[in-house]
Structure formats: structure tokens, C-alpha cells
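Lab notebook, design round three. We kept the backbone fixed and only want residue identities now. Task for the bench partner: fill in a sequence for the structure below.
Input C-alpha cells:
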């Protein structure tokens, strides 16, 4: 077997910080109500919701905007930013977007320089995966479970901690999100030579 780790990718989603809802639209309210209804109170899911009324909304939105062309006041922005902390949060977010007919965009590392993951002319919810970034490397089986918000640099480092002869064939930029890279948005110098390493990916 080639000395390159197969990567098993666990796709998680993110939820958002709750804010005053005085100026909310009906669909906005129904989405938040749905989150609350389909989650356990102990999850505090609404604490992961950020709306334009929240003082942290702007900083959360801008944190992974890599192209300043889309960091302008005129750029269309999400109605809600959802930053989940656990897999169940992601499941609820997807469910509630479907139930309330909200457009969903998912951002991992924000390296889509066209702003595809965080810009839309249609009203949308931004699912920000940056808090879901655990990495579990199994050298014996040559696999790794990686959450969607982890960055390539973090993955490389965790592999290096376990082995000096294993690697994952991705790119040279350490801030690219694993989620976007693996689902087809990225490439690396070794991708063509070791492209078969992507075949055993399992999404959950």
C-alpha cells in the first residue's frame, strides 16, 4: 500500500448565535423556531446562531472571507450564520432549511475565491463549519476521520505527529478547509499521482 493516508471524511455542519428578533422576517423566525423545536434544550442550539442584529455577526462572517472583493457593504449577506458545535446541530440545520424553504450554503475554509460558499442573491443561511475540526489519525489502518471545518495544515500536522512516512495528497496552502477540498473544490501537487486515495471516502 502506498504511504499515503486514506481520508475518511465526516461532514458536519454548523449552527449560530441567537440575537434580538425585532426586525426578523417570518421565514427568519420560523427557521429559529424550527431549530429550537428539533433540538434538545441542553444543546443550547440558538446560542450558535448569529443574525445581523448580533454584535458578533460581522466578525463571524468576515473571519473566512479570503477575497476582499466580497467583503463590502454592498455584498449580499446571509440572513443567519449557523456555527454548529456537534453533528446533531448540522442535521437540525439541514432539516430546518428544508422545512422553512431556506437556501443553505456551507463554508469550510472559505477558499472559494468567487465567494460561492458565503455569497448569494437569494436569501440564505450560512452553515459555517469552522468549529467542527477534530482529526483522528489511525496509522495502523492508514485512515483518518476528519471533520469538515479542519484545515489542511492541521491535518498535515496531525499525520506528522503519528508518522514521518505517511501523508495526504492535497495542496500547499495550509488554510484551505478539508471539507471544501475533499468534496471537489481543491487539488494538490500529488493529487494526480495518488488520486486513488480519494476513492474510499465515506461521508456521514
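Proposed sequence:
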Amino acid at each position: 500500500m502506498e504511504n499515503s493516508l486514506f481520508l475518511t471524511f465526516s461532514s458536519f455542519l454548523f449552527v449560530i448565535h441567537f440575537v434580538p428578533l425585532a426586525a426578523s422576517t417570518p421565514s427568519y423566525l420560523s427557521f429559529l423556531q424550527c431549530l429550537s423545536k428539533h433540538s434538545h434544550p441542553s444543546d443550547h442550539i440558538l446560542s450558535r446562531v448569529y443574525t445581523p442584529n448580533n454584535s458578533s455577526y460581522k466578525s463571524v462572517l468576515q473571519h473566512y472571507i479570503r477575497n476582499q472583493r466580497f467583503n463590502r457593504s454592498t455584498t449580499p449577506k446571509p440572513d443567519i450564520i449557523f456555527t454548529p458545535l456537534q453533528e446533531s446541530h448540522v442535521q437540525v440545520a439541514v432539516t430546518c432549511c428544508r422545512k422553512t424553504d431556506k437556501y443553505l450554503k456551507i463554508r469550510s475554509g472559505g477558499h472559494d475565491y468567487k465567494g460561492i460558499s458565503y455569497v448569494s442573491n437569494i436569501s440564505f443561511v450560512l452553515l459555517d463549519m469552522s468549529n467542527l475540526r477534530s482529526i483522528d489519525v489511525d496509522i495502523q489502518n492508514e485512515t483518518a476521520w476528519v471533520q469538515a471545518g479542519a484545515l489542511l495544515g492541521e491535518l498535515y500536522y496531525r499525520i506528522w505527529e503519528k508518522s514521518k512516512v505517511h501523508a495526504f495528497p492535497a495542496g500547499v496552502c495550509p488554510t484551505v478547509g478539508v471539507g471544501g477540498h475533499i468534496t471537489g473544490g481543491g487539488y494538490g501537487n500529488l493529487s494526480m499521482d495518488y488520486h486513488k486515495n480519494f476513492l474510499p471516502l465515506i461521508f456521514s
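Keep this in mind before ordering anything: The two ends are 25 Å apart (CA to CA).
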